[in-house]
Amino acid sequence: MQEQEKIKKAGIPFAIRVFHAVVVAMLIGALGYFAYGAIVGKNSYTFKRGLDIAGGTQLTYVADTTNVNPTEVKELMNVLRDVIEKRINVFGVSEPLVYTETGSAVSDAPAHRLVIELPGVTDIDAAVAQIGATPHLEFKLMNRSAETVTAQKKYAEGKVDELTPEEVDALVNAYVVTGLTGRYVTSAQVGFSQGQDALNEPVVNLVFNDEGSRLFADITGAHVGEQLAIFLDGQILSAPTINEQIAGGTAVVSGNFTLDGAKELANSLAFGSLPIPISLASTQIIDATLGAAVLTEGAMAGLVGFALIALLLVLWYRVTGIVSIVALAAYVVIMLVLVLTIPVTLTAAGIAGLILSMGMAIDANVLIFERFKEEYHSGIPVHEALQVAFERAWPAIRDGNITTLFAAVVLYWFGTSFVQGFAFMLILGILVSIVSAMLITRAFARLLPNIRQSDKTFITKLLDAGRGK
Question: Which end of the chain is more exposed for a tag (fewer CB within 10 A), N or C?
Answer without folding.
Answer: N
